[in-house]
Amino acid sequence: MDFGSINPILLLASLMVAATPLLLAAIGELVVERAGVLNLGVEGMMITGAICGFAIAVNTGSPIVGLVAAAAGGAALSLLFAVLTQFALANQVASGLSLTLFGLGLSALLGQGYQGIKPPPFPRVDIPLLSDIPVLGPILFRHDIVVYFGLALVAAVWWVLKNTRAGLILRAVGENHDAAHALGYKVVRIRILAIMFGGACAGLGGAYISLIRVPQWTEGMTAGIGWIALALVVFASWKPWRVMLGAYLFGGITVLQLNLQAAGVAIPVEYLAMSPYLITILVLVIMSADKSRAPAALGRSFHASQ
Amino acid sequence: MLTLEKRPQPSRLWTYLTPVVAVILTMLAGAVLFAFLGKDPVQSIRTIFWEPLFSEFAFYYRPQLLVKGAPLVLIAIGLSLGFRAGIWNIGAEGQYIIGAICGAGVGLAFYPMEAWFIFPLMVLAGALGGWAWAMIPALLKVRFGTNEILVSLMLVYVAEQLLASMSLGLLKNPEGFGFPGSRNLQQYPSAHNAELIAGSGMHWGVVSALVAVILAYILLNRHMLGFHIRLTGEAPRAARFAGVNPARLILFCLGTAGALAGLAGLFEVSGPSGQVSIDFNVGYGFTAIIVAFLGRLHPIGILLAGGLMALTYIGGEIAQSKLGLPAAAIQVFQGMLLFFLLAVDVTTNYRIRRVTREVA
Amino acid sequence: MTDTLLTIEGLTKAYPGVVANDNVSFAIREGEVHALLGENGAGKSTLVKMIYGLVKPDSGTMTLRGAPYAPAEPRAARAAGVAMVFQHFSLFDALNVAENIALGMENPPPMRDLAARIREVSETYGLPIDPYRTVGDLSAGERQRVEIIRCLLQDPRLLIMDEPTSVLTPQEVEILFQTLRKLTAEGVAILYISHKLEEIRALCDQATILRLGRNVGTCVPAGTTAREMAEMMVGSAFQAPERAPRELGEVALDITGLSVRSPSEFGTSLKNLHLTVRAGEILGLGGVAGNGQDELLAALSGELRTDADAIRLKGRPIGRLGPAARRQLGLLTAPEERLGHAAAPDMSLTENAALTGAQREGLVANGFLKWGKAREFAEAVIARFDVRTPGPGTAARALSGGNLQKFVIGREVMQRPEVLVVNQPTWGVDASAAAAIRQALLDLAGTGTAVLVISQDLDELMEISDRFGALNEGRLSDIRPAQELSVDEIGLMMGGAHGMEVAHV
User: Fold this and answer.
1) What is the ipTM of this complex?
2) Which residues form the ABC transporter domain (chain C) (predicted)?
């Protein structure tokens, strides 16, 4: 055992990287759920985004184009969910599950021939001056642009939900779709947009894993992060800043257990690897006491009758 | 423009018709997909759906149908009870793994003793293992109101890690030259879930699946508990009003689903698969979700859907070796089936009408 | 001010199987209160939804201030000066008053300015309300104020009000009428939808009466008797239920110090309730919606458990028993919400008969259901209560509100209960079904059953109950013999104006 091999600065820095895919997927799902829709297909959209981003980045040589493609791929897949739940009025739980099952298969199919390839490297942005601050510099200010984009996105979602009319309408639709409809808001259209935003965020999160964090393509490489993102939204009581907190918490756990594995702790690797999932369960149990913040129309189908 | 108009009551015709329409649409979409992959679409579909049943090698494939179908049906029957009541256990894969570990563990503990009671004990242990694993989300939901979807799913990843740990540690074959995986139960007669009729594919798992179908049918159609399960799914408030105890229902549905998934795992590990190994599970727990929906959560429907899904597995393997169709294409194919089913399902409760927009 | 504001000509709207509006025409003048009168299902709601742009007419035209008016959506209607106060479904519980109001406006000012304007308008029209309160915490009367203020902020020319008084106490109704009169004095026209005749006589200048989707006449309410209007509305003379004198027996239901926390966040907890109902007696409990009615029913049905001694059935403590055990002992209930609570919408009437009848009607043996017997029971209910349906295999949701309600009440009545508790037995039910249900309750009391009727319809309670009490914020008023009460006294029992301050301007 060699705890000395764990460098706390590197640990904290990699925590921010590990948290980013979770953060992206969870903030997207938060918006979807605030609109009253429960999309359990996050895992499927992430893995689809992961391969779309990877394949496009490899073929174009541009990781940025890859990220855009990943967002587009996630959004396209989420559109299937939108059609099922908003037009065909299918059960949201079943539709979300089918999205995940389909996404896992689709990504495996698309990913043939991309195994073992290295994607084009993603540039790191060292923020001038700030990155030179001792300790804080390496932890906070020497990351790729997506890390900062994720944080900006959380801030933007928070601001839009709290202070803008669009945010108010979105929350209204998620609270009571019948009332929103009676006031003349296009419930279905708003929900579809929210679902697509969630899909794009999940896709981006997936591509972050395949293009930056790992970086390579293997089947099923999201390994449940999409599901953890769903749990994170519950943990956050549907509040953007708490999503960020939760993402860093889970990022920290993941990084820590990987570091402990590398340091050769006496605990078997498998038990360390289970820890993020077990902690997710623990957190869900703790948070399930507080149900009050869930959007009132979450998971219910809307059909404008008469 | 198309609009939906709620039917006064669910259409009986479409209840039966939707799975058929979904299968046909999936075949069409699948054909397009296969053509896109550069395969002859007609031949691909034929290979998947026709060859396992009627080709000259069908004698080999038909028993496989039972072998693949049995765990799917067994798991799907358990899941369907919960799904009917609005209890979403999606962690059957984990319960399947734990059932296999527990069952095989009991068998291996007796090695090399030969006795008649070993296999029954394994069956019991398998069912109990799956049951106990499903009790975790059940108890958490009852006690704390924790979301069973996420908990049961998280436990799949935990179970997979446990499986790895077991096949590398506790259950590793001491005479296995260091390779991961347990002793092969096929070579341990007292613990082997052998074919009941040689060459038929018929093993105890198939028998259990058929029994489960019959019992589920009776439960849902004749028994008060089954009535309460359906009532809870259709109208939860009415169920409480009728006197249904939601906690008991959650424990029953999740517990039964877990036990059946555990049984499926045990029958698989002691029979067709033979040993506990890292990649022993092949996703039956997830495919069974598709089977349950495709069978419209109805026992007889699930039996048929399980057969169909087994067909796509076997046909897919044939297509893989004969036509070079990627395995993932079959996975996509199965996923599409669920998509189409959910999409077509709208016709049971709604009429689709064409509306020509007037200039008002 | 006698200029015509809105003219409606030949509006028709058909849904599959029903013609909701058939060639309806009338006109509303500026500054008038125009009543739209009709039974449930007469087509009032569809008509106003067309005026408000929620539903497009199949044919017919509307003219607003001389210009053609065909709103494609509510936004267009609002822009044209048409505003609507809904009966249901239009507020967001988790949002505050100002946010709710902003959602109903086209270009709301920043929140702080909006809050100031809400205060200003609410004071002007005698409707005080705090813009930062969460709507879910407001009483029904206050919620209606939010809706009215939302409309007033848009300076409407026409204000549509859909059954506005169904959630108000008599005192609150008086406040509302003052507000409406103030508005009409400013030239705003009001389209007032109701089936309460006395109210219409007190408030409205003109009335249009709908029956089965057709305009069957207009009248000046002040010069028409309530009975004449009722006959136009129903189409025939209607019958008051018969009340045979009844013998009262022992106390059958005894509630002592019943306190229950509401399971829902915006619900009302019950606080220290005491009441008794004797065999053969009908006790009526009035009160504005949301004052603990649902919680009381749940506490009696067994969906909510209480202290064992808080509820006694013929002296036996039953507070801890579940619904099935209480039914076995003879306490039966019928909740307000027919679809989804009293009955499962997609299940057949046979299955719905087994839903509460399983124990007392012997429909189960060793845990197995006897579907044949369940079907016979369903057929018996259908026959005795004249439920119009193709048969017991029909899904509950396919029945009309009145027929399903007859089935739900009949299902309980036919199980010969010792005590029957019903919540809103005739809500949203047509007049003939309502009369049949009231008669059934009276007949049941005549056979010695103790009946507790919870209702928001005061006329109904006065018609059938022996004693009357009212629920107000989870508390119960004194219970007094029904015959000696005046409307003012009833209003005070219901909580007067809910302690809401009345602004005098």
Assistant:
1) 0.86
2) 6-237, 253-498
